[in-house]
Write a structure and sequence with these properties.
- Helix content is about 35%, strand content about 20%.
- With about 325 residues, the protein is of the alpha/beta class.
- It has an 8-stranded mixed sheet, sandwiched between helices.
- The termini are far apart.
């Protein structure tokens, strides 16, 4: 019994330690603990499991095998946003599965944040909530078996950042309308890539609302620093001046923003920001991938787990995104 208690105490200590490491100048330990809880629920993998505890990954991939972790995830995100006092909308549609010719329902979750007026411009902050599986061809389980990935960094880190920002923005009184969007189907799948954000942007175009969008900020993988550039994170900006970003960030501690302008095509078209760029909407991609030659080992694998998130790094990026949004919203 004493041995069990010692193991339990050690696990509690490790879990608390994982929260303390995110402390910084702007530290909010409660936000860190809450983010870890959200990430464990979204991925299905606990940060520190009991010895021998069996865990089941929540399959958030777009798949033809009947797994619907995405539906469970949308319900959870919706409930958290509503508990914080926000109104939510589900943007659902049927997408064609190229391999089978059938279709599958996809869903973007739109959270309507603090609003100025119906005539005010809109600032969109988005992140994809789906993850990848071995059917996509992007990676393959070495035994040839179907495997889902936890997707803690890609892109659970972006998703829990949005939940944290929703909590912090409850008291904001912006001069524009804030809209938080959780995109479906960003990852390669039988429906294509960047599908959720494409549908969302096409809907803006169809309804003549593109000009009402001031900017889109996309968060995709913000939890694991680069091996080559551990004190940096990547801001890829399209149609936005670097001086504006630098002034808005007020970064005083690592990680420091590494700003790429629109000529860096490899990052302008790398994820959901691509669809906003094509529609002429100014965009910013925030990511821990500083160089495409330095992709993390866990990328698109079962090793992309919650316990490997660097919470100090994550929290610093969230704080800087918050600073930037507050500047834009003034």
């Amino acid at each position: 019994m004493r041995k069990v208690f010692e193991i339990f105490s050690l696990l509690v200590f490790l879990k608390l330690t994982n929260c303390f490491i995110c402390s910084s100048v702007y530290a909010n330990q409660a936000d860190c603990i809450e983010a870890i809880k959200h990430l464990e629920i979204i991925t299905g993998v606990r940060t520190f499991a009991y010895l021998g505890e069996e865990q089941k990954i929540v399959d958030r991939s777009v798949n033809q095998r009947g797994f619907n972790g995405r539906g469970v995830t949308v319900h959870y995100l919706e409930s958290v946003a509503q508990q914080l006092g926000y109104k939510t909308d589900r943007q659902s549609w049927n997408a064609r599965m190229r391999s089978s010719g059938g279709s599958i329902e996809l869903t973007n979750l739109i959270v309507n944040g603090p609003a100025a007026s119906t005539s005010a411009p809109t600032l969109i902050i988005g992140a994809h909530y789906d993850s990848i599986n071995s059917d996509s061809g992007s990676w393959m389980d070495r035994h040839g078996r179907y495997r889902a990935t936890p997707g803690a960094d890609d892109n659970g880190s972006g998703v829990v950042a949005l939940l944290t920002l929703l909590k912090r923005f409850r008291s904001i009184a912006p001069k524009l309308n804030l809209q938080i969007v959780f995109f479906d189907a960003e990852e390669p799948s039988p429906t294509g890539v960047f599908v959720g954000s494409r549908y969302f942007v096409n809907h803006l175009v169809k309804n003549g609302k593109v000009t009402s969008v001031k900017m889109a900020i996309i968060l995709d993988m913000i939890g694991r620093p680069s091996r080559l550039y551990p004190d940096l994170y990547n801001l890829s900006a399209d149609k936005i001046s670097p001086s504006f970003l630098i002034e808005g960030l007020s970064a005083k501690q690592a990680p420091f923003p590494f700003i790429r302008e629109s000529e860096q095509k490899d990052f302008i078209n790398i994820t959901d920001n691509q669809n906003f760029n094509k529609a002429g909407i100014p965009s910013i991609l925030v990511t821990d991938v500083v160089s495409l030659r330095d992709l993390p080992d866990h990328y698109h694998t079962v090793r992309d787990r919650a316990e490997f998130i660097d919470w100090r790094y994550w929290e610093s990026i969230v704080n800087q995104v918050e600073n930037l949004v507050r500047k834009i919203a003034r």
